[in-house]
Amino acid sequence: MDSRLLDLLVCPVCKGPLNHERTAQELICPRDRLAFPIRDGIPVMLAEQARDTQPAPAGSDEA
Question: From CA 44, how far away is CA 14, in angstroms rounded?
Fold first, then answer.
């Protein structure tokens, strides 16, 4: 992913900076704990498509 594009992108929820996780192909917002996917080199900056990076609480039924 182009580093100039990364400098321009911000979290669509809080407008904060994003971290690029190359191996996972995601942009991570540390403040909101959301991971936005990068598909075919294009970041998907939709909150509905973001993955929650918080671990599930102990004892939850989530798989």
Answer: 16
Which domains are delineated in the chain?
3-52 (2.20.25.10)
Cα angle: 13, vertex 16, 20; to 5 degrees: 100
pLDDT of residue 6: 83
The closest of 5, 54, 48 to 20, measured between CA atoms, is: 5
Alpha helices (H) in the chain, listed in sequence order: 3-8
Mean pLDDT, residues 14-30 taken together: 95
Residue with tokens 């704990």: 33
- Distance from C-alpha of 56 to C-alpha of 62, rounded to nearest angstrom: 7
pTM of the entire predicted model:
0.81
